[in-house]
Amino acid sequence: MEIDTDLLIIGGGTAGCLAAVEAKELDPDLKVTILEKAHIERSGCLAGGINAINVYIHEGESPESYVRWARWYAMGLLREDLALTMAREINKAIEKVEKWGLPIPKDDKGRYLRRGRWGIHVFGESIKPILAKAVKNAEVDVYNRVVVTNLLTKREKVIGAVGFGVRNGDFYLVRAKATIVATGGAAGLYKPKNDGEAHHKIWYSPFNTGTGYAVGIRAGAEMTSFEMRFNAIRIKDVNAPIGTIAVGFNAPVINSKGEKFMQKNYAHLGGEAAPTPLRVHGPMEEIRNGRGPCYIDTRRLNDKDLRRLKEEYLDEYPTLVLYLASNGIDLKNRFLEIYGTDPYIVGGHCNAGYWINTDRSTTLEGLYAIGDVAGGASSKFVGGCFAEGIIAARAAVDYICNKNALEEVDPELVDKERYRTFAPLWRYKEGRHGPTPKEMELRLQKVMDEYVGGVHQFYLITEKGLEIAKIEIKALKEQAENLIARDLHELMLAHELIDRLDVAEVLIHHLLYRKETRWPGFQDRVEYPHLDDKNWLVFVNSRKNPKTGEIEVFTRPYEQIVPGDRYNP
Q: Which of 6, 37, 296, 446 has the highest CB neighbour number within 10 Å of its CB?
């Protein structure tokens, strides 16, 4: 299937939906197309809903105070220009989504109900259907169940993308004047804490497999900060977020001795109000040193609090409520055990992603990145994804206005990409032998867990382990050339595996290059255990040379825009 469009958006999640609607509002005659791997009504990180938006500029705060807080969260290293431009758009973006139908409770003065310093409460179980309806009303063309396998490039300019239909088996060739990547980050690189049939019971969306990163890596786009992984502290087994309890109900974290250990043992790292890297570092260190298990203490909550707590989880993580009910757990008499997750590569909580300009354009002409694939500005969360979608749409529409025609695609390139797309399926039909995606996934996750600081290693990373991992990943990439897929669903899994291998390779290079520990709990370098502002107050960036296949790693300078102490929020 051949599609010509003005603006192509890869990924119909939160950021992608906002970008699509904004583009149509700016120019109703523009042809906007979304390619979505799942179905736009229940896709992406918010498929199951949310109960809060974690960034809103309340009265008494400002975009500048937000930047100071986000900089502190990122342990002093942040693209302040990106955070500032995003913060200036967040409130208007949230109000726009509220008008589309997102229920947001207010106080008696008409102000959004606060959740901590920056957040607001929402009734967001149906946020994705609400966003999907807005996209439909804007008359955006949506192709569901389409897996994007590569970007189309011409002289370092992105001119579209290719992929295939998971349900119909069609090959999709999309030519576009501008392209926005909004596919989310990367899960599944590491062995999860839960295994067996529960291996997809993880914190991040298991269907966000790094495709948005991988297509850019292969095209030669510049990437940043992959070494700033995201490891979350979550309710053990169900992986439910603890912020609802800790922030919303002021429940403390304790160790097996009943100690509020964050303040007692980690005060020099920030104490109870520590940035998120340290919030996972503290409990995992307690467990590693024999003071676990660790818990979140809900004993002081009354019946009214407990009911409200469960209601909030029903908007975001109903599994926890079912878990409590099916196991007869009374939170007034029993603690909730907490533990770390497997690592993820995300640009919403961390800095990992494309190196972008303030208009969200990447280093490849015609390509923009938003949401979790956009790097440099951690702590954007949902509100920031809203804002980035709007910012990128404006820039892309301006860019499109200056282009008169679509680029012609080299037929040989199309044939090459068609073969690459369906090769695992064709190999199987020809009776050739090779590894399955599941077999290679297990091997990839074992390598990453054991040698690249997985949860089972308490996130500890050694120089020797990373060197071994480089060799192992190279071997896996060679084996992936013989991958087989028995049907279209397994073909999707094969490409997800290929994409994760490319992301893992870049991640390992980034971890090796940064010789300090800037984010304890996220990036623990055993040989370099301390933060080193003198030598490493820089962004670690990379680019894969499309001609040689070599990954070139280098640094970009940090620029402070907002005055103030970088380690004080």
A: 37
